[in-house]
Design goal:
single chain; 283 residues; mainly alpha; three-stranded antiparallel beta sheet; two-stranded antiparallel sheet; globular; disordered N terminus
Length: 283
């Protein structure tokens, strides 16, 4: 089980516990670390009917980035790296990989597998040693520089994409489809897992979904989709307010609620929303 934080934006530091929730067609829980073959990936692209449609996925990346980075340019975040003083060492990349929680180590190990001898490989012993702490021992003074150098490498970018999809995006879409919700609902799940992680405690995705189930049923259980998604967002807001770092709920109130009130269950463009007071638009 990963235990990793996440920055939410330049205006709001956030903590993320990253453990993905994956559902099989029989609704059994599956490991988020299950490898996916190239053939399976190809089938997903061909048969995409939800947020996994490439155009919808791009929209999702932009909306999340508006909250996480105060920008629609999510691709600019591959090179991001800093210590946000949350006790978890360096936070970096498009999904907030952290040196103190093991997920950054997993990413760099994947990068080594795909490109032996890369600029970050020499830091693997240090990343193993600092796992579980906020220490920079063995990483400073050049790790941040080398991370940014690696971020110019398409292989490293692809590795970040793979980890994002494996741990966050794909499980969110699978759970959304299992619950019978459309593109907007799948996006709501994704955004929740990005911020809260996919665990089952009360403030993680599993706990949020469990709380929502006390108020409504998803379409797969005969419930109304809009009613279910409102219940899910209510539960999400409750979870956010349990922690000061998440207490600004505008990414729900002035973004996802807006889409839902407009009946935009397919997340069709144009889209207009606000996060932390900033306005965003996708044509």
């Amino acid at each position: 089980m990963l235990n990793r934080p996440r920055r939410t934006s330049t205006k709001l530091a956030a903590i993320l516990i990253g453990f993905a929730v994956a559902a099989t067609p029989a609704y059994a829980m599956a490991s988020p670390f299950q490898p996916h073959s190239e053939a399976a990936s190809h089938v997903t692209k061909v048969t995409a009917t939800g947020l996994d449609d490439p155009a919808k996925k791009e929209i999702a990346m932009k909306i999340v980035s508006s909250a996480e980075n105060s920008s629609l340019d999510w691709k600019a975040q591959y090179k991001y790296i800093e210590d946000i003083d949350d006790g978890r060492g360096y936070t970096a990349g498009i999904i907030g990989f952290c040196s103190g929680t093991g997920d950054m180590l997993d990413l760099v190990e994947l990068y080594k597998t795909r490109k032996p001898g890369n600029v970050l490989e020499k830091y693997l012993p240090a990343l193993r040693n600092v796992d579980g702490s906020d220490s920079h021992s063995g990483l400073d003074p050049n790790y941040t520089r080398d991370w940014k150098t690696a971020a110019n490498d398409s292989v490293f970018k692809a590795a970040q994409d793979s980890e994002r999809d494996r741990v966050y995006f794909n499980p969110s879409v699978r759970q959304g489809k299992s619950d019978g919700v459309g593109v907007l609902g799948q996006f709501m799940y994704y955004d929740a897992i990005v911020m809260h992680g996919g665990g089952n405690d009360s403030t993680s995705f599993g706990g949020i979904r469990k709380r929502a189930l006390t108020k409504a049923k998803p379409p797969s259980q005969g419930g109304n989709e809009t009613t279910w998604l409102n219940a899910f967002l209510d539960a999400r807001v409750w979870a956010m307010k349990q922690e000061e770092a998440h207490s600004d709920t505008s990414r729900v109130d002035t973004a996802q609620r807006v889409f839902l009130r407009n009946g935009n269950l397919n997340l069709n463009t144009p889209l207009d929303w606000k996060v932390y007071g900033d306005s965003f638009h996708i044509s």
